[in-house]
Design a protein that fits this description.
The chain is α/β, with parallel strands linked by helices. 47% of the residues lie in helices and 16% in strands. The protein starts with a helix and ends in a 9-residue tail after the last strand.
Length: 346
C-alpha cells in the first residue's frame, strides 16, 4: 500500500518530515506538533504518525531544530593529541559528562600546532555551536582572539594561556604531588634526583611542573641535589638525556611529560638497566601503559577526570546564562602514587 513513498524515500537516502506527513495523510505541522507533544490531536492520529515515523525511520533534523532555538546542545572539544592516552582519558571524561547532560561534542586535535588549533577554532565559529573546551597551545593566537571576540563560551582545561586571563580555566597544581614524590624518594635514600623537562612543547602547564621541581627539590633534598635535563622528544635528544642522567650520580628521575617517560623506559630496558633498583622512575600523568608495563611506573596524577568534568560544569554554567565574561580559575591538587618503579637505594 505504501510502496510508492518508501521507494522514493529509499532513493533519496533519508526521510523528511514531508515524507512522513504524506504517508500518514496529515500536514507537516501536525507531524511536528505530535512529535513535540504539542497541539490537540486524537489518539488514533497520534498513533498513526508515530507508527509512520518508526516504519520510515524518520530522524528529526537537529540543524533545523537549532535554527528555531538559542541552543544547539553541541560543544567543541579540542585537545593536542588523541593518541596520547592522557588526553584520550581527558576527552572521555568530558564527553561522558556532556552525554549525561544531553549535549553532543565535536572533537578536534591540534597536534600541538597553533596553526591547526586556529583552523579548528575558525571552523567552530562558522557553525552554530554553544561553546568550546580546549587544551590550548601556549600563546595568544588569532584563533583564540577570534573566539574571545565573538564571546563564544570558552573554557581551558589542563593548560592556560598567559594574556587571556578572562578565559576560565581548570588546571592541576603540580606542587602537592611533586612534593609527595620527592619526600618518598628521600625516605628511600635517594640523595640526587634528575628531572626531564620538555620546554620545546611550549606548554604552560608542562613548564610550570619544571619550575615547581626547581623550587621544591632544594627544599626537600637540599642544595645541589637535583638537576634538570631538557628533552625535545626526538630520538637523539632522548638518547642524550639518558646518557647525561646515567653519567651523573642521580639514582632517580622524574619526567614532566609522559611521552618522554615511555620512550626512556624502553631505552633503559634496552641497556639492561633495572628500573626500580638501579634507577627509580616517576612520571607525571596517570596513563594506562604505566599500569601495564613491568615494573609499574609511579605517577604524579593530574586527576584528568576531575579536571575534565569540572571544565564541563563551568562551560555549561556559562552557556545560556547571564554571567558576565570573566575568569574563573580552578586548580586541582596532583597526587603521587607509589609503584614498583621506585625502590630503595642499596
Amino acid at each position: 500500500m505504501h510502496t510508492g513513498v518508501e521507494k522514493g524515500v529509499g532513493s533519496m537516502g533519508f526521510v523528511t518530515i514531508r515524507d512522513v506527513a504524506r504517508e500518514a495523510g496529515v500536514s507537516t505541522t501536525a507531524v511536528s506538533q505530535i512529535l513535540h507533544g504539542k497541539g490537540r490531536f486524537s489518539e488514533p492520529t497520534k498513533e498513526l504518525v508515530r507508527r509512520t515515523v518508526q516504519r520510515l525511520g524518520y530522524i528529526p533534523d537537529s540543524r533545523a531544530q537549532a535554527m528555531r532555538s538559542d541552543r544547539t546542545h553541541m560543544v567543541g572539544l579540542l585537545v593536542p593529541d588523541l593518541h596520547n592516552p592522557y588526553f584520550a582519558d581527558l576527552v572521555s571524561s568530558m564527553e561522558t559528562m556532556l552525554y549525561e547532560r544531553g549535549v553532543g561534542a565535536l572533537i578536534g586535535t591540534s597536534a600541538e600546532s597553533v596553526k591547526r588549533q586556529d583552523a579548528y577554532f575558525m571552523r567552530i565559529l562558522s557553525q552554530r555551536i554553544d561553546g568550546v573546551i580546549a587544551v590550548p597551545q601556549g600563546q595568544v593566537s588569532d584563533g583564540l582572539k577570534a573566539v574571545v571576540k565573538r564571546e563564544l563560551p570558552l573554557v581551558f582545561v589542563d593548560r592556560r594561556v598567559p594574556g587571556l586571563e578572562q578565559v576560565p580555566y581548570v588546571v592541576s597544581d603540580p606542587k602537592p604531588g611533586l612534593a609527595q614524590a620527592l619526600k618518598q624518594l628521600k625516605s628511600f635514600g635517594h640523595q640526587r634526583v634528575a628531572y626531564v623537562s620538555h620546554p620545546s612543547l611550549g606548554s604552560f602547564s608542562v613548564d610550570e611542573r619544571t619550575q615547581a621541581f626547581r623550587e621544591l627539590a632544594p627544599q626537600v633534598l637540599g642544595p645541589g641535589a637535583a638537576a634538570v635535563y631538557a628533552c625535545d622528544g626526538s630520538s637523539s635528544s632522548q638518547e642524550q638525556v639518558l646518557s647525561d642522567i646515567l653519567d651523573s650520580s642521580a639514582t632517580a628521575v622524574i619526567f614532566g611529560y609522559s611521552r618522554d617517560a615511555v620512550s626512556l623506559f624502553s631505552l633503559l630496558r634496552g641497556r639492561n638497566i633495572a628500573i626500580g633498583s638501579q634507577l627509580s622512575l616517576i612520571s607525571f600523568d596517570d596513563i594506562e601503559v604505566f599500569r601495564l608495563i613491568s615494573p609499574k611506573v609511579a605517577i604524579i596524577s593530574q586527576q584528568a577526570n576531575r579536571m575534565g568534568r569540572q571544565g564541563v560544569r563551568i562551560l555549561l554554567d556559562r552557556i545560556g546564562s547571564d554571567l558576565e565574561p570573566g575568569s574563573q580559575a580552578v586548580s586541582i591538587a596532583t597526587r603521587f602514587q607509589l609503584r614498583d618503579s621506585v625502590g630503595r637505594v642499596a
